[in-house]
Design a protein that fits this description.
By secondary structure, the protein is mostly helical. The protein is about 45% helix and about 10% strand. It is globular, with a radius of gyration of 14 Å.
Length: about 110
């Protein structure tokens, strides 16, 4: 249930964030074995109103060999919003948009 469809377009803000992440990765990300600087991408909170943002960042991270990072400690209003918009709880929303996986860091994880 819910209105989310994989691949749906994101907002201009998401595009701007995506471009900023691309620039940071190009400038700072070091994939060498003993690198001291590696870039991870992700929002600090669940952007349930813009699944396209998570999809873009997830794809970018996978292509660049970066970690995906998000804080998952949603307040009741955020849980309700996610259920209303997508028919699921926040953890399931992250799974649906492809955010959960081997290179995912879920800070706090209170869900």
């Amino acid at each position: 249930a819910g209105s989310f469809r994989p691949g749906e377009d994101s907002t201009p803000l998401a595009t701007s964030i995506d471009l900023a992440c691309e620039a940071a990765i190009a400038r700072h990300h070091d994939m060498s074995r003993f690198a001291m600087v590696r870039v991870g991408v992700g929002p600090t909170a669940l952007p349930s109103q813009d699944p396209g943002l998570l999809q873009k960042l997830s794809q970018l991270a996978l292509e660049a060999g970066c970690d995906r990072h998000i804080h998952l400690q949603p307040r009741p209003v955020e849980i309700e919003e996610c259920a209303r918009l997508h028919g699921c709880r926040p953890t399931e929303f992250l799974r649906r948009v492809g955010w959960l996986g081997e290179r995912s860091i879920i800070a706090h994880a209170t869900m």
